[in-house]
Amino acid sequence: MEAKCLCGAVSLKVEAERKLHACHCGKCRTWGGGAGFTLTAKTPEVSGGGHIGRYRSSEWAERCFCTQCGTHLFVQVGDDYYINAGLFADNAGFELESQIFIDCKASYYELANDTPKLTESEFLAMVGGQE
């Protein structure tokens, strides 16, 4: 699958299932205005890597963005890449699989999808991060 930022300076090719995760943490909400919808992939093939800016938003994660247009590209946690679902023009068959940081979700929205939900502590235990 291929993903591109808004201006096309950065593109990513990944092999990933079409399963999405919604992150409700405060950092995702501040970064994008609501839940962050991502799919998980291992080491994408990157074109335009010189246009990727990195911001270490916690001890265990980096948020990456296009330095040309500001598009949110992915959050990197160790070897896992949580890639912004909006970057994929071909999103047919995408399915919301889980919601994380559910205990941090803003009160102004609800997702109707019936998915497994992990709290902040449960997710951090899974990825080996610290609060």
Describe the structure.
This is Aldehyde-activating protein. With 131 residues, this protein is mainly beta. The chain has one domain (2-127): Metal Binding Protein, Guanine Nucleotide Exchange Factor, Chain A (Beta Complex), CATH 2.170.150. Helix content is 11%, strand content 40%. The chain has two helices and eleven strands; from the N terminus they run βββαββββββββα. An eight-stranded mixed β-sheet has the order 6-7-8-9-4-3-10-11. Strands 1-2-5 form a three-stranded antiparallel β-sheet, with no helix packed on it. The longest helix has 8 residues, at 120-127. The N and C termini lie far apart (33 Å).
Write the layout of secondary structure elements.
Elements: E1 2-4, E2 11-13, E3 19-23, H1 26-32, E4 36-42, E5 45-47, E6 52-58, E7 61-66, E8 72-77, E9 80-84, E10 95-100, E11 117-118, H2 120-127
Parallel strand pairs: 3-10, 10-11
Antiparallel strand pairs: 1-2, 2-5, 3-4, 4-9, 6-7, 7-8, 8-9
